[in-house]
Write a structure and sequence with these properties.
The complex is a heterodimer of chains A (about 270) and B (about 260).
Chain A: H1 4-10, H2 20-43, H3 50-61, H4 65-88, H5 96-134, H6 137-143, H7 148-187, H8 191-200, H9 204-230, H10 235-270
Helix pairs in contact in A: 1-2, 3-7, 4-5, 4-7, 5-7, 5-8, 5-9, 5-10, 7-9, 9-10
Chain B: E1 10-25, E2 28-40, E3 43-48, H1 54-61, E4 69-74, E5 77-78, H2 84-91, E6 94-97, H3 109-120, H4 126-139, H5 155-167, E7 173-177, H6 185-202, E8 205-210, H7 213-219, E9 222-227, E10 230-235, H8 237-241, H9 246-257
Parallel strand pairs in B: 3-8, 3-9, 6-7, 7-8
Antiparallel strand pairs in B: 1-2, 1-4, 4-5, 9-10
The chains are: A mainly alpha (about 270), B alpha/beta (about 260).
């Protein structure tokens, strides 16, 4: 609890600069900034918790696979199905594979993976760290000479940052598979042709920007939910709030980041 | 029953020495000038009403909270001045038994006990770790729970596992936060015996926070009463409760009459 961000969160300014709510908001933003800085300070300092990082990667990555598979497959099928009518108006259903591939790889896979993991992993981390905080498990870790920030926060943020891009790539494949199933059933397109058509329109920049987005989303999910959990106060009520805020805030930031990254990448595309 | 063991206390060696300690949370001035010395091998009981800052006091000793002013010296280290590395080293010699037990929910009882060992005594073999875990569990009489999850245990069992987890590192100082709260009289007595046994076997110095006067009487070499952020009375159990101080007397009456 000798944690600077914790103290900042608790500190109540006596006289408000703007209004009580707005001041509290900026205090929170500042404390969050401190938390991020602390993450990077701790990231490069030994001891490195390799074993725990691997464990967390498993928890984030492997445990999310069923959900990602299901949502990815459905996304692929539904998107293809919904796009067909507008293309067939122009008699252009042969474009379907490339349209779907572009949509999935550029936009759908990163965004859907980001949102799904924010919901599943974000709430999980927020609630887990939150309950560890209020039941003094974090203090217990600290007095047994294990740096809880490194052991709990750094490992989880690394795990989400590494795993979300992998999950995104996996989801893209599954979604393409879903799209293929639908295209094959309707237009009898062969797998080879589907792949050829689909990947013709994808370039390196598309893939790169999607991976970049996913890295940013993964980091956001990890750091936001760890911050919410690690600074939980007010007992079990606070735990619920931490889990909830983790998801809402992470999703909100993911949309903002999506907009920014798309803008920047499009700028590269043109020049 | 009075304290039965005849442990020798070294009154020349202070393991904890606190001077003029103040701590507030916002406008809530909790500790208002604490002075306290704990000697080598001594069990000191801290009594005080709920919310007087007993838990805060031992959290400051373990470096979990920072004091606003005053000095806190533990085993020759000024807790506030030392680096984080040194603080971690110091913490290995302090055992902290939490009021809420604070067992790691995501680990079994065995993993809970192994955790401090595996992380801090890397030279130990798997065999040695296993033996240490079994011995510590045996000491609190809960060998059969070794593969259970904390969620499956009763409050009293959790408390005893929590104590076992701190004993496993063989600390020089034990800080017990309400070790007998919420336990039946027989289990409480077992805990009291355990506290005395630890003192005797490892020559450990302890701070025992409690509301339970039986616990205070049977484990404390000295009793210190915390009131309004200060120690108002220190001495043996009998000295404290025959002093005729109204505030202390009411604490005693309440404990035994109701
Ligand atoms: N982290 C914290 N932030 C703000 N206030 C705190 C914090 N920890 C303790 N306090 C306040 O300090 C006071 C003393 O708390 P403490 O937990 O030390 O009481 P206690 O003497 O241990 O009581 P109990 O016997 O009920 O455990 C309480 O008023 C509490 O509100
Ligand atoms: Mg307490």
């Amino acid at each position: 609890m000798d944690d600077a961000s914790m103290k900042l969160k608790q500190k109540q300014p006596r006289r408000y600069v703007v209004s009580r709510k707005l001041d509290a908001f900026f205090f929170d933003v500042y404390a969050f900034g401190q938390f991020i800085a602390r993450f990077f300070r701790n990231l490069f300092l030994p001891p490195y918790e390799f074993k725990e990082v691997v464990h967390q990667c498993y928890m984030v990555g492997v445990k999310s696979l069923p959900l990602i598979t299901l949502t990815g497959f459905i996304t692929g099928i539904v998107f293809t199905k919904q796009s067909r009518p507008s293309l067939s108006e122009f008699g252009a259903t042969s474009w379907l594979p490339s349209l779907v591939a572009i949509a999935i790889i550029r936009a759908l896979a990163p965004l859907v993976t980001g949102l799904i993991t924010a919901g599943k992993v974000g709430s999980n981390i927020g609630a887990e760290l939150g309950s560890m905080k209020v039941t003094e498990q974090i203090d217990a870790m600290e007095v047994s000479a294990t740096n809880p920030f490194k052991f709990l926060v750094v490992t989880r943020v690394i795990a989400t940052t590494c795993m979300v891009p992998l999950l995104m790539l996996y989801m893209a494949l599954v979604a393409l598979l879903g799209a293929f199933v639908n295209v094959h059933a309707n237009e009898q397109t062969s797998f080879i042709l589907f792949i050829e058509n689909g990947f013709q329109s994808i370039n390196f920049l598309d893939l790169f920007s999607s991976v970049l987005k996913s890295v940013v989303f993964g980091f956001t999910i990890g750091i936001v939910s760890c911050y919410q959990g690690y600074t939980t106060t007010q007992g079990t009520q606070g735990v619920g709030r931490a889990a909830n805020t983790s998801v809402v805030l992470a999703m909100f930031l993911i949309f903002i980041e999506e907009i920014i990254i798309v803008q920047v990448v499009n700028w590269f595309r043109i020049t | 029953m009075a304290k039965s063991n005849t442990h020798i206390i070294d009154r020349t060696k202070r393991v904890i020495s606190i001077r003029g300690l103040h701590k507030s949370f916002g406008t809530n001035h909790v500790l208002r000038g604490i002075d306290l010395d704990i000697f080598q091998g001594e069990n000191v009981v801290v009594l005080g009403r709920s919310g007087t800052g007993k838990s805060v006091l031992i959290k400051i000793i373990a470096g979990l909270l920072k004091p606003d002013s005053g000095s806190v010296n533990v085993l020759g280290n000024d807790v506030e001045r030392i680096s984080y590395r040194e603080l971690e080293k110091l913490r290995l010699r302090i055992g902290f038994s939490f009021q809420s037990s604070a067992l790691y929910d995501s680990m079994t009882v065995r993993e809970n006990l192994e955790f401090p060992l595996l992380r801090n005594s890397k030279h130990l073999s798997t065999q040695q770790v296993r033996q240490a875990v079994e011995k510590a569990l045996d000491a609190v009489g809960l060998s059969q729970t070794i593969n259970q999850w904390p969620g499956e245990l009763s409050g009293g069992q959790r408390k005893r596992i929590g104590i076992a987890r701190t004993l496993i590192m063989q600390p020089a100082i034990m800080l017990y936060d309400e070790p007998t709260a919420g336990l039946d009289p027989i289990t409480s007595m077992e805990i009291n015996d355990l506290i005395n046994e630890v003192q005797e076997r490892f020559n450990t110095s302890s701070i025992i926070i409690t509301h339970d006067l039986t616990c205070a009487k049977s484990t404390g070499d000295r009793v210190a009463v915390l009131l309004d952020g200060r120690f108002v009375k220190q001495g043996s159990f009998e000295e404290v409760f025959t002093s005729g101080d109204e505030r202390i007397k009411s604490f005693y009456d309440y404990n035994f009459i109701t």
